[in-house]
Specification:
The structure holds 2 protein chains of 2 kinds. By secondary structure, chain A is mainly α. Chain A folds into 2 domains: 237 residues, no CATH class; 65 residues. Chain A has 14 helices and 2 strands, in the order ααααααααββαααααα. In chain A, β1 and β2 form a beta hairpin. In chain A, α1 crosses α6, α2 packs across α11 and α12 runs parallel beside α14. By secondary structure, chain B is mainly β. Chain B has a domain of 32 residues. In chain B, strands 1-2-3-4 form a 4-stranded antiparallel beta sheet, with no helix packed on it. In chain B, strands 5-6-7-8 form a 4-stranded antiparallel beta sheet, with no helix packed on it. Chain B is globular and about 85 Å long. The chains are: A mainly alpha, B mainly beta. Chains A and B meet through α1, α5, α6, α7 and α10 of A and α1 of B.
Chain lengths: 315, 378
């Protein structure tokens, strides 16, 4: 049995027959059948999606720890990366993980595309080949084909000429990406997240202008399902500025906590070494006027203790 | 995060996007043509063979010398569409599915570009085009000629009757869905099937409906009129025998899959090929099955009768001679090219247009392939 025959047997033919029968029960609407297929597929892949979302949520919750790591190993880049990776690993976040639910759906997209071409009788060669995919034990499918390509304002066999669907695909994907986008203080990581935030929606919006709108309908519904599931798991995530502020407030609190720790009396020699190293590093990196808060209390402590002529307690 | 890791992540992201995009385009297209190519059969008239090539041309070939009869092939105008990439790209040539029809000094042909052409059979000069401005929806069926008119069905669901000499529209009849069927003309009636599951009998003079017969599936096949019966196959897997006068059902026969090809009649037997890979031989009067031929491949190409033999080609390219009385199936040739186009015959020679755009001439008795002519325009 060739790969093509296996593909037809386990993916394409089931998708075709299910779409035809479902459209028969849904007022002979192929558009509603595509929406139903999307819901079925997303339900079947829900465990995978949930796993990924929980990992993403865990990563977002790791932000304070990541911040702590940055404070702790800010100058030791290699160590910082090592510690970050350890944290990611512990939280179960995989760099390719967010793509996995999408990759799993790729065969369904291909099968849906091939189904659309066949069941809507666009090109005679493809429509004729449909006969070899129909289940002879399901008499209903023979009386239902070809399916009606009209759904709302769309011809499901053609790209949306009003360009509303590309906007919907791009918009819903952007929203969904924005919700899962982890908050990070690392500007380079931020840049990468921003690139992902825009690249995927733009690419899919472009694909929508090129492929039959039936396929894009799947993408829109799938994105909406993602948004709903995402909301249930993590809330609005990166979408809400208020939450971002709240989170920022938490971060500030966290920084205060660090500062308190730093205010504890320390050894003069150590402090001096720290300050010297830090100032030196700042000069090396060309940073001016951006004093790091963690060292301010220490400086004040030095002055206070110097005036009193006392050595601070401690080590 | 180190620059190397960032770079790796970015590359991974790009790779995933590339896989998604190219997977959709390449693999999505791999199992589907998605670009119309055409499967025109051959019209034989006065020693000339007329057919539509997959280069989007109507060609005229001398059946004896295999030379082109016209100074140049007649090329159809490509309908300008917003083309995409991948499978959705706009076709570069016009697919011709319907077999050209000769009538008097003209040859009529229609294309996927939604236009009907009348060409001078002797010179290849274009006589008229319908519509003169714009185009209809894609035309898949071929034209039929009768009573000074050309009849054609379009994917817009309408049957058009055009003046054969001028191309002026005489009447239009609207059905409920797309038409891919080729009309059949008998006497003063035009018979045509539609995706709306109905077979229509129309008055050839004015397009008034005489009767309609509804099946349970879409109709793509061309009707066969034999005596006082019209035979039509449907996607509901039934072959129907209807009374010519009023469309009354005489009998019906169920196959395992669609009837796509037009059946043929020989010696009181109807031979109907199905895409279930069988040809059924049925008594014309009763519909009783006389024989069932296992062809090993779907039959979407209409058979042809040569003498007392029925010649059938399968999609896989096998050419067979069938005899219902003796229940004999004899393999004539193996073309090793797929065949979807209806067969034609003249003088004991069967003409087969393969999906490789090659025209084969096969001796109907011996099965010898007399010649094979690639049609690609020089």
């Amino acid at each position: 049995m060739s790969i093509g025959e296996i593909w037809n047997l386990i993916i394409l033919s089931p998708v075709i027959n299910i779409l035809i029968v479902v459209s028969g029960y849904l007022f002979n609407s192929f558009g509603l059948a595509i929406i139903a297929l999307t819901i079925i597929v997303r339900t079947l892949t829900l465990p995978l999606t949930l796993k990924q979302l929980r990992a993403t949520k865990a990563m977002q919750e790791l932000q304070p720890k990541l911040l702590e790591l940055q404070k702790k190993y800010g100058r030791d880049r290699a160590r910082l990366a090592q510690e970050q990776m350890r944290l990611y690993k512990e939280s179960g976040v995989s760099p390719a993980g967010c793509m996995l639910p999408m990759l799993v759906q790729l065969p369904i997209w291909i099968a849906l595309f091939q189904s659309i071409i066949r069941v809507l009788a666009v090109v005679p060669e493809d429509f004729l080949s449909l006969s070899q995919h129909l289940y002879t034990s399901w008499p209903m499918v023979f009386s239902l084909v070809p399916l009606d390509s009209q759904f709302l304002w769309l011809d499901l066999a053609m790209p949306d000429r009003f360009l509303l669907l590309p906007l919907l695909v791009g918009g819903t994907m952007w929203l969904q990406q924005k919700m899962v986008m982890p908050r990070t203080v690392d500007p380079r990581q931020q840049a990468q997240s921003t690139m992902m935030l825009w690249m995927m929606p733009l690419m899919f919006a472009f694909l929508t202008t090129q492929f039959p709108s039936g396929l894009a309908l799947y993408w829109v519904v799938s994105n909406i399902i993602s948004i709903i599931v995402q909301y249930k798991i993590t809330g609005w995530g990166g979408l809400l500025p208020a939450e971002a502020k709240k989170q920022a407030g938490k971060d500030k609190k966290y920084i205060k906590h660090i500062s308190k720790v730093e205010e504890k009396p320390t050894d003069y020699a150590d402090v001096g070494a720290d300050i010297g190293a830090d100032v030196g590093a700042d000069i090396e990196e060309g940073k001016t006027g951006a004093a790091r808060p963690r060292y301010q209390p220490s400086l004040r402590a030095i002055k206070r203790h110097s005036k009193k002529g006392k050595r601070p307690r401690g080590k | 995060m180190p620059r190397r890791q960032l770079l790796a992540k970015t590359l991974l992201l790009l790779l995933v996007l590339l896989v998604l995009g190219s997977g959709l385009i390449v693999f999505g297209c791999a199992q589907t043509g998605a670009v119309p190519r055409g499967w025109s059969g051959v019209e034989v008239a006065d020693g000339a063979l007329f057919l539509g090539s997959m280069s989007g041309n109507v060609v005229a070939i001398d059946s004896t010398t295999q030379e082109r009869l016209w100074p140049s092939d007649v090329s159809f105008e490509v309908k300008r569409e917003s083309g995409g990439f991948g499978c959705a790209r706009a076709p570069e040539v016009v697919a011709i599915y319907g077999t050209p029809e000769a009538g008097g000094e003209l040859v009529y042909a229609a294309g996927y570009n939604g236009k009907v052409y009348a060409i001078n059979a002797q010179t290849g000069a274009l006589r008229w085009v319908y519509p003169r401005e714009g185009e209809l929806e894609p035309i898949i069926g071929g034209p039929a000629v009768g009573a000074g008119k050309v009849y054609i069905g379009s994917s817009d669901g309408r049957v058009y009757a055009l003046d054969a000499a001028t191309g002026d529209r005489v009447w239009v009849f609207a059905t409920g869905d797309k038409i891919w069927s080729t009309p059949a003309v008998s006497g003063d009636t035009v018979y045509i099937g539609s995706f709306d599951k109905k077979l229509y009998a129309l008055n050839a003079a004015d397009g008034q409906k005489r009767w309609e017969f509804e099946t349970e599936g879409a109709i793509v096949a061309t009707p066969l009129i034999d005596g006082d019966t019209v035979y039509i196959g449907s996607f509901d897997r039934y072959l129907y025998a209807l009374s010519v006068s009023d469309g009354r059902l005489k009998w019906k026969f169920q196959a395992g899959n669609w009837f796509w090809a037009r059946p043929v009649a020989a010696d009181g037997i109807i031979y109907a090929g199905s895409v279930d890979g069988k040809v059924y031989a049925l008594r014309a009067e009763s519909g009783d099955k006389v024989a069932e031929f296992e062809m090993g491949s779907p039959v979407s190409s209409s058979p042809v009768v040569v003498g007392d033999a029925v010649i059938v080609a399968t999609e896989a390219g096998g050419v067979y001679s069938l005899d219902a009385e003796t229940k004999q199936k004899k393999q004539l040739a193996e073309l090793e090219e797929e065949v979807y186009a209806p067969l034609a015959a003249s003088g004991g020679v069967v003409y087969i247009h393969s999906d490789k755009d090659v025209l084969h001439a096969v001796n109907a008795r011996s099965g010898a392939i007399l010649w094979s002519l690639p049609l690609k325009s020089e």
